[in-house]
From TrEMBL:
Belongs to the helicase family. UvrD subfamily. The gene is uvrD_1. It comes from Methylobacterium hispanicum. Its EC number is 5.6.2.4. This is DNA 3'-5' helicase. Residues 283-506 form the UvrD-like helicase C-terminal domain. The lineage of its organism: Bacteria, Pseudomonadati, Pseudomonadota, Alphaproteobacteria, Hyphomicrobiales. Gene3D superfamilies: 1.10.10.160, P-loop containing nucleotide triphosphate hydrolases (3.40.50.300), PCRA, domain 4 (1.10.486.10). GO terms for molecular function: 3'-5' DNA helicase activity; ATP binding; DNA binding; hydrolase activity. Keywords: ATP-binding, Helicase, Hydrolase, Isomerase, Nucleotide-binding. The keyword Nucleotide-binding applies.
Length: 597
């Protein structure tokens, strides 16, 4: 396997010092990881003594397949003994072996999804919102190593009733987990860390079993995962990690980019390698990406160096539109022209900051008869806030089903909903849609991560717009039924990908459209980290191999919008040799708020 000079230096790092490899987009991150594994084996480290942790199960499957191909002589029995997987997968293996020392039954179960929601309900405490959102809140506490008592103290300080209620359920939920001898995903790691920290037998086994620990996507690690790494390697003499601080996108989920930028402080004496050569993007795309991300201050200083030859038509372009319908229509027509010119649908992607932007774009593509595949988002009409909005309007219109009435009757804030319905009874759709949207937006559970809170509100607003455009209740409910049944292409079918930027990380397409680049959306108005928002645009732009078309609207969700200040940074700081075209550029840039977003 061929590696360039920078990749080779990183792959052949000599211990005992820990090492971090800062791998820019398209720089051969996975190739270097595989190269590291090959190098360790060549110098005498048994393959089963090398642990590789990946961010997702899918990534683990890819790495495992590439290891088999690269080594060429891994027998099935040896492959079964090797560990390539997620932190959670590692913890399951360890806890199955040391279940008694961790206080768990031998056949302990893992609760997730519906089983986790059922357990939350079994605490006997009432939650006013979606239990899936409550489960997410509790996971975020655990990822930050916040105990139930600390969560309760935090909620009391903030004097937020919903958060106080969530903290009470968290404590009861933890008791239920312990009494039943089951684990949710964060508890798998917590139990492993405790066992490794307090039990010499567990600690000795780990030190003998895994002589080298390799970690992929290190920039997305959270406090709980760092605690696990510290339990595995101590000060990290045999730790080798790879990631990109400029692609750290999960601060709202507990990840901290400073684990990557300050690696040498936490794991003493850590060596840093930088992979700056980009084998994905043309020079114009790379120049635009460099322009926007170098504004950030919490980062490892570097500039991605494009290794791809330019072609006519390459580059980054920005365009403003009157509203989101006009924007979506223009994007759909531009894609249709490319497809007629011979471009394959799978070579085009449309990316957005929030899943609430997807319905308008999907409808525009549908009118052009362009197949789509959704990534990172579910069906708009299956979102709990949208289902609530539809149920409210069904009751207001007098056409509610028993299921609609039951849903509202069981809602913890049914009095507020009932008062609204009393005033709206018999009102035409034109009068009821916006008030119903405001009602649902105000029923968002407190304590949700900023991304989920923002999506809840935006989805409620988008649902009202969809309703108003239908004109009558009957047409709206027909629209809901038809849209809910809309199918999307499978993974193996030719289709344009509609994806959130988060879900697109690690992927690439020759042509990428980034829609909704507005002050309230990118950076998102619910985010408190401007630099992470800027990294999102960086990631979106670097998904494009040759063409990236960024757009925004002057009106979205029936409200005035403004071009993202990131666009001015990107356009004005870009290398003059790769000028960014901007259609309908505003006269003055929109500044970022002084205190952040």
């Amino acid at each position: 396997m061929q590696l360039d000079d920078d990749q080779m230096r990183a792959a052949t790092h000599a211990g005992p010092r820990p090492a971090i490899v800062i791998a820019g987009p398209g720089s051969g991150k996975t190739r270097t990881l595989i190269g590291r594994h090959l190098h360790l084996h060549r110098i005498g480290v048994p393959r089963e003594s090398i642990l590789i942790s990946t961010f997702t199960v899918k990534a683990a499957q890819e790495v495992r397949a590439r290891l088999v191909e690269a080594h060429g002589d891994i027998a099935e029995t040896e492959l079964a003994r090797m560990f390539v997987g997620t932190f959670h997968g590692l913890c399951v293996r360890l806890l199955r072996r040391f279940h008694a020392r961790a206080g768990l039954p031998k056949d302990f179960q893992i609760v997730a999804g519906d089983a986790q929601i059922a357990l939350l309900k079994d605490t006997g405490l009432t939650w006013h919102g979606e239990y899936a959102d409550l489960a997410d809140m509790i996971s975020r506490w655990k990822d930050r190593l916040v105990s139930p008592a600390e969560a309760a103290a935090e909620a009391a300080r903030r004097q937020t009733p919903d958060l106080v209620q969530a903290a009470e359920i968290y404590a009861a939920y933890e008791r239920e987990l312990a009494e039943r001898g089951v684990c949710d995903f964060p508890r798998l790691i917590i139990a492993t860390v405790r066992a490794a920290s307090s039990d010499e037998a567990v600690r000795s086994f780990l030190q003998r079993r895994f002589r080298h620990v390799l970690v992929d996507e290190f920039q997305d690690t959270n406090r709980l995962q760092i605690a696990l790494l510290e339990a595995l390697v101590g000060q990290g003499g045999n730790l080798w990690v790879v990631g990109d601080d400029d692609q750290a996108l999960y601060g709202w989920r507990g990840a901290d980019v400073r684990y990557a930028t300050d690696f040498g402080r936490r794991f003493r004496g850590g060596t840093r390698y930088v992979l700056a050569r980009n084998y994905r993007c043309t020079p114009a795309v790379a120049a635009a990406a460099n322009a926007v991300v170098t504004v950030n201050t919490v980062r490892v200083e570097k500039t991605i160096l494009p290794m791809v030859e330019p072609e006519d038509g390459d580059g980054v372009h920005i365009a403003g539109f009157g509203d989101d319908r006009e924007e979506a229509s223009a994007v759909a027509k531009a894609i249709a022209r490319r497809l007629r010119g011979g471009v394959r649908p799978r070579d085009v992607a449309v990316l957005f900051r929030s899943g609430s932007l997807a319905p308008v774009v999907q409808a525009a593509l549908s009118r052009e008869k362009i197949p789509v595949r959704l990534s990172g988002i579910g069906s708009f009409w299956s979102l709990p806030e949208v289902r609530l909005f539809v149920s409210v309007l069904r009751v207001a219109s007098g056409s509610a089903s028993g299921e609609d009435r039951d849903a509202l009757e069981k809602h913890p804030r049914k009095r507020r909903i009932g008062a609204f319905l009393h005033t709206m009874k018999g009102a035409p759709l034109a009068s009821a849609a916006e008030p119903a949207s405001n009602l649902v937006a105000n029923l968002v559970p407190e304590g949700l991560p900023p991304d989920r809170t923002g999506l809840w509100i935006e989805a409620a607003q988008q649902a009202a717009i969809e309703a108003a455009e239908c004109g009558t209740y009957a047409r709206f409910f027909e629209h809901v039924e038809a849209s809910s049944g809309t199918s999307t292409a499978g993974d193996d079918e030719e289709a344009v990908v509609l994806s959130t930027i988060h879900a697109a990380k690690g992927l690439e397409w020759p042509t990428v459209f980034v829609v909704g680049a507005e002050l309230a959306m990118l950076p998102h108005h619910k985010s408190t980290d401007v630099e992470e928002e800027r990294r999102l645009l960086y990631v979106a732009v670097t998904r494009a191999m040759r063409q990236c078309l960024v757009s925004y609207a002057d009106e979205r969700f029936a409200r005035a919008q403004f071009a993202s200040p990131f666009l001015f940074e990107m356009a004005d700081r870009c290398d003059p040799a790769y000028r960014i075209g901007w259609r309908n550029r505003p006269v003055r840039p929109t500044p970022l708020p002084a205190e952040g977003v």
